[in-house]
Design a protein that fits this description.
Blueprint lengths: L4 E4 L6 H8 L3 E4 L5 H7 L5 E4 L7 H6 L5 E4 L9 H6 L3 E3 L6 H17 L1 H9 L17 E5 L3 H12 L3 E5 L5 H7 L2 E2 L2 H7 L2 E4 L13 H6 L4 E5 L8 H10 L2 E6 L18 E3 L8 H21 L15 H22 L6 E8 L6 H13 L11 H7 L3 E7 L7 E9 L2 E10 L3 E7 L2 E5 L4 E8 L4 H11 L4 E8 L5 E8 L5 H9 L3 E8 L1
Parallel strand pairs: 1-2, 1-3, 3-4, 4-5, 6-7, 6-9, 7-8, 9-10, 10-11, 11-12, 13-14
Antiparallel strand pairs: 13-15, 15-16, 16-17, 17-18, 19-21, 19-22, 20-21
The structure holds nicotinamide-adenine-dinucleotide and (2R)-2-hydroxypentanedioic acid (2HG).
Function: Catalyzes the reversible oxidation of 3-phospho-D-glycerate to 3-phosphonooxypyruvate, the first step of the phosphorylated L-serine biosynthesis pathway. Also catalyzes the reversible oxidation of 2-hydroxyglutarate to 2-oxoglutarate.
Family: Belongs to the D-isomer specific 2-hydroxyacid dehydrogenase family.
Protein name: D-3-phosphoglycerate dehydrogenase
């Protein structure tokens, strides 16, 4: 099998390329490409490793016909159109912890630089002014630090600030009281935070809720003389209002590492008093860049080579140890999903995936993803485990996952049921010898069949002579039968035949099959 190919399209620590090669990938390092250049080459790659410069737009994703995974060496993925990537079946991963300490340290450095006006003092001292009288700082000891967002970075900032003897309060709707107690911080609402904090640091992603979270109104009503640090994302603060508040003195100082528009080369805040900034350097330390480069390469190679999934934003995690155990179940799940998708008629609004026995002990999300991928193939050729849940949601399919501790006739079983206009229809399968997927039940009839290649599904009256008739008809057309699988509800009632064929039966054969005496339903299947 040829090696997966990875493109590193941003400046990244060389350890990333080394890890990709060591883990069996071919790698090209081409930072600084224009969007058009990237569009021209992206079709050759299975993996794309980026930092924040590469913008992964729908245009790029449309050209990325072989892409399986995008890895962000860092946290924020606002430069990737994640829903579009999901729709295309591309896994998007980030490295959520590799640069947290570094970014938290940058926020603390910015806070100290603001408190003592170090950048201005430095510039003017070097200019020969010796401006000792012009600078009067403030202590941070015993001051209140308000965190907006107390996740990975916010909580590290909290512990560093506590080391500086600050009182830390936080606004984070997702922070539990227990976690706040563990961090030694007080959980407050946003207005309380802004009315009490001497310093505010922001540590949230940019979302519809957090955009302009420091709005004009909030800035104007905050504690007079507040100082603000943003090392999270531009867009969290109304920059025009911040400039006005710095000019009026309502805000005593602001330090930004991030801007609404980046690169920020001509921002009105540059002229505001007591304003300092850095060019999105939050994650720029040797240690953090080595961490995120190693981590992103390990995660991406793991996915491309072994199927392991870590830190994906659009797919459940699957460890490299779990992947080989789950692989045969995912193959079974996909075949069962495909079977019901091919056999069920009309618009289907409900699907349930049940796991019994050993299957119930496994990570259910990848199994559900695989069932849906097989099932959704009736709607789309490009569906896979990543985009199937999104496509299912888009189509209003109600998906339920059920696990049973009980063990039935099989020590491991997956059952897929769809709700049709004539009631529920189920198929079920197991693994033979831990690896080989087998269908064991179809619409209430026990059968044993391997679902593979071209197959013919026939429902017929269980009467003598039928098997001979269908065999003769297929033979007459030169079609060889590979396996012959038979099941019946009860003797003389309804029987099901699943034949594996060496080639796809054409329309003429299907018409003839439909006319055979005793046939109720006939359908060509492909797996
Ligand atoms: N400047 C840089 O170079 C740099 C480096 C690393 C990370 N970042 C950015 O820092 C931010 C925080 O990173 P993190 O690792 O701490 O993320 P995280 O996911 O661990 O924490 C984010 C926190 O924000 C909280 N939050 C979400 N919505 C909120 C809301 N409406 N109000 C208040 N809190 C809310 C969440 O509950 C969570 O606790 C991210 O945007 C990331 O992209 C910037
Ligand atoms: O890669 C960078 O330099 C920035 C990283 C940072 O914005 C992040 O979200 O991780």
């Amino acid at each position: 099998m040829s090696k997966p190919k990875v493109l590193i399209s941003d400046k990244m620590d060389p350890n990333a390329a080394r890890i990709f090669e060591e883990r069996g990938c071919e790698v090209d390092v081409k930072p600084g490409m224009t969007p058009d250049e990237l569009k021209g080459v992206i079709g050759d790659y299975h993996g794309l490793a980026i930092r924040s410069s590469t913008k992964v737009t729908p245009d790029i994703l449309d050209a990325a016909t072989n892409l399986k995974v995008i890895g962000r060496a860092g946290i924020g993925v606002d430069n990737v159109d994640v829903p579009y990537a999901s729709g295309k079946g591309v896994v998007v991963m980030n490295t959520p912890f590799g640069n947290s300490i570094t970014t938290a340290e940058h926020a603390i450095a910015m806070m100290m630089a603001l408190a003592r006006q170090i950048p201005d003092a430095n510039t003017r001292t070097k200019a020969g002014e010796w401006p000792k009288k012009d600078f009067m700082g403030v202590e941070v000891t015993a001051k209140t630090l308000g965190l907006i967002g107390a996740g990975n970075i916010g909580s590290i900032v909290a512990s560093r600030a506590q080391g500086l003897r600050m009182k830390v309060i936080a606004y984070d709707p997702f922070l539990t009281e227990d976690r706040a107690i563990e961090l030694g911080i007080e959980k407050v609402d946003l207005d309380t935070l802004l009315s009490r904090a001497d310093f505010v640091t922001l540590h949230t992603p940019l979302t519809d809720e957090t955009r302009n979270i420091l709005s004009r109104e909030r800035l104007e009503n905050a504690k007079p003389g507040i100082r603000i640090v943003n090392c999270a994302r531009g867009g969290l603060i109304d920059e025009v209002a911040l400039k006005d508040c710095l000019e009026s003195g309502q805000v005593a100082g602001a330090a930004l590492d991030v801007f609404a528009e980046e690169p920020a080369t001509d921002n009105p805040l540059f002229d505001a008093p007591n304003f300092i900034c850095t060019p999105h350097l939050g994650a720029s330390t040797t240690e953090a860049q080595v961490n995120v480069a190693l981590q992103v390469a390990e995660q991406m190679a793991d996915y491309l080579v072994n199927g392991g999934v870590t830190n994906a934003l659009n797919m459940p995690s699957l460890s490299a140890e779990e992947a080989p155990k789950l692989r045969p179940y995912m193959a079974l799940a996909e075949k069962l999903g495909s079977l019901v998708g091919q056999l069920a008629h009309g618009s289907l609004t409900k699907i349930s995936i049940e796991r019994e026995g050993a299957a119930a002990e496994l990570n259910g999300k990848p199994i559900t993803g695989a069932v849906l991928a097989g099932f959704m193939r009736r709607y789309s050729d490009t569906v896979n485990m990543v985009n199937a849940p999104y496509l299912a949601k888009e189509r209003g399919l109600d998906v339920s996952e059920i696990r049973h501790d009980r063990e039935g006739a099989f020590n491991t079983l997956i059952r897929v049921t769809v709700e049709t206009s004539s009631g529920p229809r189920s198929v079920a399968g197991t693994l033979f010898g831990t690896q080989s997927p087998r269908l064991v039940e179809i619409f209430g009839i026990g059968i044993e069949a391997e679902l593979d290649g071209d197959m013919l599904y026939v429902v017929n009256d269980d009467k003598p002579g039928f098997i001979g008739r269908i065999g003769t008809m297929l033979g007459g057309h030169g079609i060889n039968i590979g396996t012959f699988n038979l099941g019946r509800r009860d003797a003389g009632g309804e029987a099901v035949l699943l034949l594996s064929l060496d080639e796809h039966p054409g329309a003429e054969i299907m018409t003839e099959a439909e006319k055979l005496e005793g046939v109720k339903t006939v359908k060509a299947l492909r797996f």
